[in-house]
Records
---
Amino acid sequence: MACSRRIFFRLIGAASLAGGTLAWRTAGAADSNATTSYEVTHSDADWHKLLTDAQYTVLREAGTERPFSSPLNNEHRVGTFACAGCKLPLFSSNTKFDSGTGWPSFWQPLDHAVITHTDKSFGMTRNEVLCRRCGSHLGHVFDDGPKPTGLRYCMNGLALSFTPSAA
């Protein structure tokens, strides 16, 4: 019985810590986009209707999916990756590469598709990537990618949809 109580309290403590971290990250994301207006906007309730719970967590609360969990990580057909929130085309399959990180990665977005924002969550500074049209969180961009840009746009698969090119 004592062992079960100990495990129970450890789980409660871990859940509290995780919830606090998510709330802290979400508040930071909401604050960063508060002054930016986007072409596509929806109420919170409408975003919930348009997206799955997992997509909502990533796109609207700046969450991150588990690595190697997205089928798009292994998508190798020719086509276009678009925002799962507003369908804006974001990346060509021609710029996709296997970064080994477990998330779909690209070395360059399409012109005028994304914007970046400084993200100082979790005690580090990163460049967050957002959809230019709806402000949805897509992932982060790092400077350890392949030529020709040297960039790695590390995207959440849940933030993207894929449309293969017509043959």
---
Amino acid sequence: MLAAVTASAKQAGLDYHFDKTVMTNSFKAHCLIQFAKSKGKGDEMEERLFKAFFTEGKNVSDLDTLTQLAKEIGLNENEISTAFTDDTYAYQVKNDINEAIELGVTGVPFFVLDRKYGISGAQPTEVFTTTIEKAFEGWSKNQTKTNLDISNSQSCSIDGQCD
């Protein structure tokens, strides 16, 4: 399985080294992501953690490693420890975990579309395309247009023309 994922990653331009990965509890890394989101750097933190784990074989449960990675993306060194000590971020991670359980997520990667469709594992592009199309079709059918009963009187249009 890891060889297949590595090959798929390579086709997408990613350089995975599962032989270097350190399997560990990533709870603190997820707390750091929540902290980074609060600073507008959530996506950057996720990308840096992915590279650290999948390519560089870093231990993403080690607080010194996590602190260094956070500094690399420009987070304030004096605030980073907050990610690990403020219960707010742990609470957000636990909420994400509970939501995933309610949705039926059993592993990663897992993608949820419109809270109705799920894609589990590393799937071919066609699976994503088909599922996205199906999700969009279902979503667009449920969009309602409001037909207001309008009482007209003097007014101005959006282009500034007044009655």
---
Amino acid sequence: MKEGLKPGVQVEFRVVVDESMRPSFDGQVVHDVMSTVTMIYYMEKSGRKVILPFLDEGEEGAGLSVDIKHVGPAVLGQEVTFRALCTEVTETRVVCEVTAETAFNLVGKGVFTQAIFMKKDMDQRIAELEKKLEKEPRHH
């Protein structure tokens, strides 16, 4: 990783809740609010934005763990601010506190940890799994 990524580095951006973000299961919309899945997606995205400027050539990051609480709603048309605050950096890990909030309430909070690794190592792991998959009988 490049120099400069340390606790205190922060990223912030805003998203407006739209119909595609609502929770739905088997085609049934549950509520006209931002779903937990959508909230976590943007929390992960905020953490990724923290590491991107600091990745070296050939280096990559991936989600390792997510510990999130969805504590309040964000309704259709409402703007949600997502923040990731770097709290810990090691050679192979970056930890961020992540939050989602509207002008009126906290929507979610938690911790997102990313693993940092060389792309070639991940490519090799993926190729090995794909070879194993080719040998497996197909399940329907």
